User: Fold this.
Amino acid sequence: MEQGGYAIGVRAPNMAPRTRFFSLVGIVSFASTVALAACASNSNAPRTVTANPVKGGTDPQNATARPEGSTPNAALQPTRDTPAPGPVVWTTEMAEAAQLLTAAAEGQTRAWDRLAYMADIFGPRLSGSKALEDAIDWSLEIMKADGLSNARREKVMVPHWVRGEESASVVAPVKRELEILGLGGTVGTGRRGIKAPIVVFDSLEAMKQAGAADRKAIEGKIVVLNQAMPPYDPAREDSAGYGKTVEIRSHGPAEAARFGAKAVLIRSVTARSLRSPHTGMTRYEDDVPKIPGAALTIEDAEFLSRMAARGETEVELELGAKTLPDAESANAIAEIPGREKPEEIVVIGGHIDSWDTGTGANDDASGCLMAMEAAKLLLESGLQPKRTIRVVLFTNEENGLRGGVAYQEAHKDELHVAAIEADSGSGAPMGFGIAGDEATVAELAAYAPLFARLGSSHFAKGWGGADISPLMKAGVLGINVRPDGSWYFDVHHSPADTPDKIDPADLERNAASMALLAYILAERD
Assistant:
């Protein structure tokens, strides 16, 4: 039968994985394609690249997480020296796998259908919520029905922060409601709320300098941090401005508290807005009081800046946030056992929790469904790998990273060959970020031509991912799926993170790309 331009042979379901029959036309066609791509890859000088940083979940303070101020979560760090691909090293089985998986992704919408179900039925999945636990149970049922083995929950205790009722408004010299979202982990204001004049700064650094020069400039006021995030740079394929701007959210309340501020309102960490606020985690320090923090829309941050420039402006803020005792959650795990080395493991996954706004479709239902679909595509294609491919849907990435930490602790004695994380949304496939040295990047880039028809043939130096960072710290090779991130932060951590933003074809091709790379990692010597 013909799919995606390839003639694919049909294999009976009970035949051994390595005894498939392919149309000679299909094999020659695909081999010619990858051979030409390989020649192009090896004949051209490596192109100048600044890989696409995306995602902004946990801003970890612990040793297993990314360095503070770096581009967060599954992000690629800028590099202008992407190594040239090495010699062609793939086997016939790998080329056959590329053909099968590429064809299987054509016209398939299963991953998106399941993503939409997760988002629509379970909705936001904040740690400690029933919705999260129901989504975990559902994902395990799906993976078990898909034919994966050893589907199970692995217990993780997670923080249980609750948003509560929220409101903010200008009360003088005019009256106007403001659109806000409390920052993740913020303390509440108490029932009486907080009413105070505002003071506006265009950056966190400007606030710190002003406070150091004159504490009274901040003391007793509500600080507004109107620091703009630079837009996506299409020439550099880069949203590096996020990593520089997110510090207002991570550290704004703690830094303002040092100078006696009553509360902090930050401009949402996004470059574009249609009056939609964006939340995310804030971090408190032990040596200063905990003060409330919330995110404003870009429009309201600009409005407050204009008002403050005209004279004293007073704002009233009410946040009903509170932190409850830790709750029980779990990582959702299932596997395709390896046929020769089942004790050696390649992890693929994303995080199943989300913030309590929107439905977490891009962040990170998309990553979960990529991993689930990758496993399903491998099974449907009769591709049983040499090593075990393990799907892990991590809990509590957004406000604790406890799923990633718990997984590493529970499985530290197992041999992990590599870990692939998808936590960058689901734009059009571009490639992978590899958290290794240049020799490792070049070694994996040799397989890039196999990914050409999926659109994911760009292999570059990258960071890996937050959930797999504990594995990476233990020496495991970390890789992140890298889709187009040009619009990712437009919806990130906001009510607009819904399934309609995702192209089903992009999601399926990302899943097939993840499946192919996992298979290669599980097969290679």
Summary: The radius of gyration is 24 Å. Residues 1-29, 35-81 have pLDDT under 50 and may be disordered.
